[in-house]
Amino acid sequence: MPSGFAKRLLTTHLPEFLNKHPGLELELSTTDRRVDVIREGFDCVVRVGFSADPGVMVRSLGQLEVINVASRDYLRRHGISKTLADLEHHQLIHYAPVLGAKATGFEYLQDGEIRYLPMRGSITVNNSEAYNLACLAGFGIIQVPKLGVHPDMVEILPDWPCEPMPIYLLYPHRRTLSRRLQVFLDWVSGLIQTHYATIP
C-alpha cells in the first residue's frame, strides 16, 4: 500500500475496522515501490498507477485527481506561475521510483493527450514522503493527488492538470478466498471508493 494511503487509513479508519473484527490480525506493508504480489506473498495490494502482474485479480477502485502545488514560501520567493511559459523560471522536484532514471518533466493534459515540459530541478526523490517534504522545504513544484494536500501547499496552474491516477486493488487469483481476506477486500474497496477515489 502506498505510504500516503497507509497514513490516512491508520490514523482515521483502521481502528474502527479492527474494533468490528477483533479476531483479525493484519500485517501492513507501506511502500511506494511496485511489489510483486505473488512472489512476495501478499494477500492483497493497493496500487496507484497500473502495470499488470501475471496471476492476479484486479479490481478498479476509481482514480485520484492530481494537481500542481508549491509551498507558500516557495511562491513568495519565486512568484506564482500562471502559464506554462512561466515554468521556465521555476524549479520542479523530480520523482523517480528508481533513482538514476531520467526525469520526464512537468506532466500536463492538452486536448486529451499527455505532454511533458522539461524543467530544471535541483532534487530528485524516490518516495512520496520525501516528495512532499521537499516541496514543503521550498525546493519547487510537485504534482500530487489533491486528496490530503498539506495546508502550506498552494495549487497552481489549475488549467494544466496531470492525468488522473488510477487506483486498483490486486490479489492472487484463487478459486476461493478466505472469509478474512474477503472481509478486508470489501472494506478497503468501499473505503477508497467512498473517501479517496473518484469514478471516471
Q: What can you see in these coordinates?
A:
The radius of gyration is 19 Å and the shape is elongated. The strands form four sheets. A three-stranded antiparallel β-sheet has the order 1-10-2, covered by helices on one side. Strand 5 and strand 6 form a beta hairpin. With 200 residues, the chain is α+β, with helices and mostly antiparallel strands. It folds into two domains: 3-64 and 165-195, 3-Layer(aba) Sandwich (D-Maltodextrin-Binding Protein, domain 2); 66-156, Periplasmic binding protein-like II (D-Maltodextrin-Binding Protein, domain 2, 3-Layer(aba) Sandwich), CATH 3.40.190.10. It has helices at 3-20, 72-78, 128-136, 179-195, and strands at residues 45-48, 56-64, 66-71, 94-95, 106-110, 113-117, 124-125, 142-145, 153-156, 165-172.
